[in-house]
Design brief:
about 220 residues; alpha/beta; Rossmann fold; Arc Repressor Mutant, subunit A; 2 domains; six-stranded parallel β-sheet; about 50% helix
Amino acid sequence: MARILIVDDHPIFRAGAATALKTGEDFEVIGEVGSALGAYEILRRCQPDLILMDIRLEGDVNGVALAKQVRAEYPDIKIVVLTNYSHEPYIKAMMEARVEGYLLKDTPPSEVVESLRKILDGKSVFSESITHKLVTRYLGISEGAGDHPIEALTDRELELLQHVAKGLSNGEIAAHLHISLKTVQKYLTVIFGKLGVKTRSEAVFRSIQEGVVIVDD
């Protein structure tokens, strides 16, 4: 029986996913948590065969960072993304983490269950729209990146931009990231240049459009 860990910031969705998986006799849900911290508490006690995770999680660590950490520390655990986010930067980041599957939450539960079975059997499974984006990227077809691709931002720049989107001042960002105010200002100058924008609000709007910054509902 395959051991499954569910990591998602919505309790109702976690419960629904667990119920769907428990209907099959080949899955054992060993945990349902909303954060990377909760996931690691379970990982230290009992390693799952597969982690089913969202990109948006509770706390400061999102699903992309969690996937990369798990892949580095637990290379044998299969990772499957189940999310509403289908933007290219997220797909690219998860591909870099070498996830075995990337499914969207509009996928019928029965298809999710069958996809997990295939992945546990050694296959990779991606939603049709995700596959399309991967193919177009492979073929070098740009999907609106223009002259200022948001993918050019580093992980640190994206982290800082996330704090800007939350409404934090430069001083608050400096304190949170343990860097100087001058360093924050330098980061913002670089970010504006990469995105081809002139203001914080323009940078946030662009990043939200592209899905690389997550704002609270």
